Every structure is written in C-alpha cells, then in structure tokens.
Amino acid sequence: MIDAFAFADELGPLKTIHIHEPSVGLRAVLVVDNVAKGPSIGGVRMAPDVSTEECIRLARAMTLKNAAAGLPHGGGKAVLYGDPKMPKQDKERLIRALANALRYTEDYIFAPDMGTDEECMSWIQDEIGRVVALPREIGGIPLDEIGATGWGLSHVTDVAREYCDLELNNARVVVQGFGAVGMHTARFLTDMGAVLVGAADSRNAIHNPDGLDVARLCEIKANGGALGEYVDATTLDRDAVIDIECDIWIPAARPDVIHEKNVQRLKTKLVVEGANIPVTPGAESQLAEQGVLCIPDFIANAGGVICAAMEYHGASEGTVLQAIEEKLRRNTRLVLEDAARRNILPREAATELALTRVKKAMSYRRYSLFSTAPGFV
C-alpha cells in the first residue's frame, strides 16, 4: 500500500481513508487534503484502475481549484474501484455502501466525477444527504446536464486565445475525452464559432479537417454509442488524437495523457486542461518552450465545482452560470497577465494565486488542518 505521508506537505493531506467491504465488493479511497477554507468538496471517480496516488494528487488539485475559485471549501477526492459500466444495480449497491462507509466523515462533501453522475449523487442523497450536483427533480443543479464545466472551459478558452494571437471564429479544436466535460465544451465552443476537427472517446478517435457535426456526435454518445460510429470522418486509434493538428487541444479524460514521451506529437497553439492533472509538469514546461500556451487544470475546469458549491449554498441555475463565466474569465486573465509579466509558467502563477488564498485561510485557524468544527479549549 502506498505511503500517503510521502505526499505530505504544509497543506496536507489531512486524512487518507481506505475502505474495504468484501461483502459488497467495495474498495475505495477517500483523501481529504485541506479544510482550512471549509469542508472539502470533490468528486467520486470510478474506474477499474484508480489508485491511492491518483486520489491524493486529485485531492490537492481540488484544494487549489476551490481556493482559486474563491469558494468556502477545501479539497478532497474519492476513488472507487470498479467498472462504471457495470449493471446499474451493482453500481448503486457500491455507491450506497461507500456513502454509508463515509457517513460520519463530515469534512467531505460528495460530488460526481468520471464514472459517476447525478443519478449516483441521488443515491448518496438518499443515504446520508451530504452531496451536491443532484438531479433537477430533487432540487439540484445537474452540472453534467447543463454542462457547467464545459461552459467554464469555453470562456477560459475565449480569454486564453487572446494571449496566443488566435481568433476563436473558425479555430480548429480537438477534444480528447468526449464525455460529459468534453462534449459540452465542444458544443459551447462551436456555438462561439470554433470548428471541431477531432475527438476521442475510450474506444476511438475521429478526424475530419472540414469539421465534425457536434450535434450528431452528442446524439451518438447519448445513445450509448462510440465515436467510431460517426460516418463522415476518418476513424483512428484512440491515442492518435494527440497527432491531429489544430489550434486548440483540450484534454478532458484521464490524468497524465500528455507527458514527456509524447508531448512532441502535439501540433497546436493552445492547450486548455479540461481534465484534472492531464498534463505532467515536465510536459507543460516543454509546451512552453515550444511556444504553446497551456492553461492549468484547476483554473480551466473549475466550472463544475463552482456549480456544485453554489448549489450546496442554495443558488439558482442562472446565478451559477453567470458566476462561472465571471470567475473563470477573471482568473484566467489574472494568471496569464501575471505569468507574462514575470516570465513564468501559467501553472506557477496559478499555484501562487491559490496557495496565497489557502495559507491566508489557514492563518485564521487554531488547528488549520484538523477540523471544520469549532476548536476545543
């Protein structure tokens, strides 16, 4: 088992909880990274190959994301071992069991992530009630349905393209990971005049230099199909999406898809990180050397958690979308102007922005990492 203390620093993680319930086949990990700004919010990620290390890294990304977005919440993440496409009754049993296992871990608020959705959150709501991104029918703001993360990414892209001398109208876009985040990002960007020329899901990549019909792709995915079913495009190996020449490349799937060994294959001007930790630090440095602007994940993809946090505090859907647009456009400009002024990577500028806010919050607390409840005397 990985030693969580190997990742410890002045921010956290506060706690790492391993969950194993053989009677229902439950294996999961929760990492609460930092709660100085308030109880942690972070998604439940479900996949067969999740890991404790991935969970720790994702929880830290949530700490930085929530701080940069100005939310009264710390960062956390849960990973659940399993195939998200398993029979619904089996998936429901696992998620309900996970909720009950963490019933009294009150410094973590459940949210959806890769492999989970609003329906999964409704099961958690039924069990313990400490959850966000609920279906509309039970009073929630369904962030995947409205495309909250993709809405934010489209506005981040619109600001960032100014810093690499790029017009959004007719800009060629490639989306790696055509799921809830990537699909809505493609939809919003094409509505703004961009052209989707390439996309990939877990099975295939497709390419058409003249443009793909986003509405048709969304219909295919909504019916449970694969992008390879789209007829007016060249079907490629899934990983060949890296090689499609474009102006804007958006990773919206798993961590570390771009790394030092494949970053040279990217032919783009702008990378906007829709997934969490999709580009390694070394690859980000190489992109900068190649003149490619890279917007870090916790700045670019914060729309979802902004939506979730605002739902938790009773906001309306219209207010949420306006807040996402305003917060992310402002943060993108702040980070890119600071990076240009000091000749540093955007990630360095973004990290300093977030860390300043977290450390200031920690300075107000008697035991900065330990509890969101009042301290004892």
How would you explain this protein's 3D organization?
This protein is an alpha/beta fold and 377 residues long. The chain folds into two domains: 4-137, Rossmann fold (3-Layer(aba) Sandwich), CATH 3.40.50; 148-301, NAD(P)-binding Rossmann-like Domain (Rossmann fold). The chain has helices at residues 52-68, 88-101, 118-127, 143-146, 148-160, 180-191, 214-222, 281-289, 297-300, 303-312, 317-342, 346-363, and strands at residues 15-21, 26-34, 40-47, 75-81, 108-112, 172-176, 195-200, 204-207, 234-237, 248-251, 270-272, 293-295. The chain has a seven-stranded mixed β-sheet. A five-stranded mixed β-sheet has the order 1-2-4-3-5, with helices on both faces. Helix 2 crosses helix 3 (118-127) and helix 6 (180-191) packs antiparallel against helix 7 (214-222). It is globular and about 55 Å long. Residues 368-377 have low confidence and may be disordered.
